[in-house]
């Protein structure tokens, strides 16, 4: 099927939708941490608690996420923009010099996030040039910090709507 638009036009239209920013993490069999920045995170179900994210089929981290069987979603706060940029970059060891800890399920977690979700991989689906990973949430944490957002190719933070601010 052909479409009346190209991939670039589609990508720019998708960029109009503001999302949160996450770093999805897992570990290699030897315990080496692996992670990448993703804004494809979404909730799926409350019962059972399911979330999803997607990864490009060409990602150098794909095989590790496929074989690990678990992952963590670290939802970044506004002051973690440098962390988001680092984990979106092609540096060989994204964890070098970065503080993190292992969660109950052994997945790498970053302190200061607005939320994190440790998940067991429940399903994997093919979706065009990406794979969609659905995880069952096994543990979570959240706090009242300001989340980091991404829209229109730039990072941002939420601000109250003027009608709400006038209250």
UniProtKB/TrEMBL annotation:
Source organism superkingdom: Bacteria
Protein name: Nitrilotriacetate monooxygenase
Occurrences of domain Flavin reductase like (ranges): 14-157
Family label: Belongs to the non-flavoprotein flavin reductase family.
Oxidoreductase keyword on record: yes
Keyword tags: Monooxygenase, Oxidoreductase
GO molecular function: FMN binding; monooxygenase activity; riboflavin reductase (NADPH) activity
Oxidoreductase as UniProt keyword: yes
Record lineage: Bacteria, Pseudomonadati, Pseudomonadota, Betaproteobacteria, Burkholderiales
SMART domains: Flavin_Reduct
Pfam families in UniProt: Flavin_Reduct (PF01613)
